[in-house]
């Protein structure tokens, strides 16, 4: 024991409660819990809601169950501003409803990987947490939301979210596999300030949804559309016309994308001036012609071409002659079988990384 009862009593006499409370405010949650076990006086101070304004439970994710979140919400109440439940798969709708009712001043909430939550959580947060910035009807200040891998969230939840969040700027829906164009329509009609959309593995989204999104959200800067397998060059055409600020675009595993789509992208204002990152892994219809088009993208910094089987080394070299600063990551199968063990010649690298 660090302090005896006399030591602890002396500290309490020498230091005013306000100063002790201020000291406790700098401690992490583990240390606060330890301090709470020292004495009754310290228990009251350590567990004071003002010390629990920012909580990250990621390191305890396997142990966090719904009742933990409920207890935290009752302890912190209106003091809590930021909570990360990233990876807390044991937390569900019921607990988050209690949380929403108790912590109405929450501003930042991370639910990444909370696979048990459904649209019900979106409803609870929208109803009770009007100051949320970084989830749904009446959350007018919300600017950022991460729902990655919340696979039970459906279009209904996203639609309600969008209707009440006109200032939304960043939304991650990656892994929400049941979403359809109805979600994109809601974003397009309600969230014109949207800058970042991550929708990887949302395989039901189509050109129609992205067309409406592009025509209404002109501030888009970053889009992750990996494994949006239904989109075609039409989506790229619309992004090229309506989204001049686009800087990063992932189209990996979008196997219907062709050289024509890249032509539209590279000849657009965003292609000429803004585009920095383009990911085309497993876009099987892309050829060296697309690389010729990308020579117009003078600001391009990184290009991903893994398993683009119609792209050649020669095509990459020609492009890099025009864009020497660009980093190209590509994969080429060995031309000859690997050299036997102990061979004196150089071995062929299976993964070609061109710096």
Automatic annotation (TrEMBL):
<protein>
    <submittedName>
        <fullName>F-box and leucine rich repeat protein 2</fullName>
    </submittedName>
</protein>
<dbReference type="Pfam" id="PF12937">
    <property type="entry name" value="F-box-like"/>
</dbReference>
<dbReference type="InterPro" id="IPR050648">
    <property type="entry name" value="F-box_LRR-repeat"/>
</dbReference>
<dbReference type="Pfam" id="PF25372">
    <property type="entry name" value="DUF7885"/>
</dbReference>
<dbReference type="InterPro" id="IPR006553">
    <property type="entry name" value="Leu-rich_rpt_Cys-con_subtyp"/>
</dbReference>
<dbReference type="GO" id="GO:0005737">
    <property type="term" value="C:cytoplasm"/>
</dbReference>
<dbReference type="Pfam" id="PF13516">
    <property type="entry name" value="LRR_6"/>
</dbReference>
<dbReference type="InterPro" id="IPR001611">
    <property type="entry name" value="Leu-rich_rpt"/>
</dbReference>
<dbReference type="InterPro" id="IPR032675">
    <property type="entry name" value="LRR_dom_sf"/>
</dbReference>
<dbReference type="InterPro" id="IPR057207">
    <property type="entry name" value="FBXL15_LRR"/>
</dbReference>
<keyword id="KW-0833">Ubl conjugation pathway</keyword>
<feature type="domain" description="F-box">
    <location>
        <begin position="9"/>
        <end position="55"/>
    </location>
</feature>
<dbReference type="InterPro" id="IPR001810">
    <property type="entry name" value="F-box_dom"/>
</dbReference>
């Amino acid at each position: 024991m660090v302090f005896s009862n006399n030591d602890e009593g002396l500290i309490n006499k020498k230091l005013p409660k306000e100063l002790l409370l201020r000291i406790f405010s700098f401690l992490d949650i583990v240390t606060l819990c330890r301090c709470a076990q020292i004495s009754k006086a310290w228990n009251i101070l350590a567990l004071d809601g003002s010390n629990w304004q920012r909580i990250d439970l990621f390191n305890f994710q396997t142990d966090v169950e719904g009742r933990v979140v409920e207890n935290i919400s009752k302890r912190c109440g209106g003091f809590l501003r930021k909570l990360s439940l990233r990876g807390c798969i044991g937390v569900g709708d019921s607990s988050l409803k209690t949380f929403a009712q108790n912590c109405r001043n929450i501003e930042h909430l991370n639910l990444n990987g909370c696979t048990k939550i459904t649209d019900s959580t979106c409803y609870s947060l929208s109803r009770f947490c009007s100051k949320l910035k970084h989830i749904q009807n009446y959350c007018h200040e919300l600017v950022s939301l991460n729902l990655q891998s919340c696979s039970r969230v459906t279009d209904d939840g996203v639609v309600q979210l969008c209707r009440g969040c006109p200032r939304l700027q960043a939304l991650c829906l990656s892994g929400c596999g049941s979403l359809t164009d109805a979600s994109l329509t809601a974003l397009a009609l309600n969230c014109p300030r949207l800058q970042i959309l991550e929708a990887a593995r949302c395989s039901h989204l189509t050109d129609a949804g992205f067309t409406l999104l592009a025509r209404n959200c002109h501030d888009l800067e970053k889009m992750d559309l990996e494994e949006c397998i239904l989109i075609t060059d039409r989506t790229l055409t619309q992004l090229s016309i309506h989204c001049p600020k686009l800087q990063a675009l992932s189209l990996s595993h979008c196997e219907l994308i062709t050289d024509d789509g890249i032509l539209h992208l590279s000849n657009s204002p965003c292609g000429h001036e803004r585009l920095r990152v383009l990911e085309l892994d497993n876009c099987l219809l892309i050829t060296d012609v697309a690389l010729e088009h990308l020579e117009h993208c003078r600001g391009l910094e990184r290009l991903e071409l893994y398993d683009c089987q119609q792209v050649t080394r020669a095509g990459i070299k020609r492009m890099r002659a025009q864009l020497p600063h660009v980093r190209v990551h590509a994969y080429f199968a060995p031309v000859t079988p690997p050299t036997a063990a102990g061979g004196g010649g150089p071995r062929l690298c299976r993964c070609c990384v061109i710096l």
